[in-house]
């Protein structure tokens, strides 16, 4: 087993446990008007991924079904941080900064497939879930409020799946990402 695989088996369970609160923690920046719109759109695209019915790894797959969501949040946080978070206060930025700092493990885990994931996450700015596009969320205060309520509801109702720390789960994850990420 590689050092990266060992680290992933150690860390991924905590990413699953914090998925709901991570999503909720990103909310404060999407309505902060000091955050540039491009960064807001990136964060909204990442959060909206939580509600996609057809995501990269189906949520119902034992052990790994929500890890793609955790990856997408980290990649969107990293992209938004690189785009600039404006003059938001440190407390508001804390979750995004932490998630962005954790993206290196995603890069190490996916290797040559990581750029495809990053391109996919950038594309989520143009995506939609539950009938809401990123444009709708950014441009319509009522839709933004509904979206924020849905993210909070997800955070409250989310129960982390177990993650058996077996290498076979990492192999399955890599296979899903390799097969499903657009080329």
Helical content class: 55-70%
Unreliable parts: none
End-to-end separation: 28 Å
Largest sheet entry = 2 strands, antiparallel
Number of domains: 1
Number of helices: 10
Number of strands: 2
Can you offer a commentary on this structure?
- This protein has a two-stranded antiparallel ribbon with strand order 1-2.
- The longest helix has 17 residues.
- It has 183 residues and is an all-alpha fold.
- The chain contains ten helices and two strands; from the N terminus they run H-H-H-H-H-H-H-E-E-H-H-H.
- Helix 2 packs across helix 5, helix 3 runs antiparallel to helix 4 and helix 4 packs across helix 5.
- It has one domain.
- The model has no long low-confidence stretch (mean pLDDT 94).
- The protein starts with a helix and ends with a helix.
- The radius of gyration is 15 Å and the shape is globular.
């Amino acid at each position: 087993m590689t050092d990266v695989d060992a680290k992933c088996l150690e860390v991924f369970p905590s990413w699953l446990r914090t998925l709901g609160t991570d999503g909720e923690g990103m909310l404060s920046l999407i309505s902060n008007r000091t955050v540039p719109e491009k960064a807001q759109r990136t964060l909204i695209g990442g959060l909206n991924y939580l509600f996609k019915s057809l995501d990269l790894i189906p949520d119902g797959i034992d052990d790994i079904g929500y890890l793609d969501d955790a990856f997408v949040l980290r990649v969107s946080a990293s992209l938004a941080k690189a785009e600039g978070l404006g003059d938001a206060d440190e407390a508001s930025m804390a979750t995004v900064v932490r998630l962005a700092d954790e993206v290196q493990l995603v890069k190490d885990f996916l290797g040559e497939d990581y750029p495809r994931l990053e391109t996919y996450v950038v594309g989520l700015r143009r995506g939609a879930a539950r009938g809401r596009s990123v444009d709708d969320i950014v441009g319509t205060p009522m839709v933004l409020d509904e979206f924020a309520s849905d993210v909070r509801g997800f955070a409250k109702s989310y129960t982390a799946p177990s993650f058996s720390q077996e290498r076979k789960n990492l192999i399955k994850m890599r296979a899903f990402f390799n097969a499903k990420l657009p080329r």
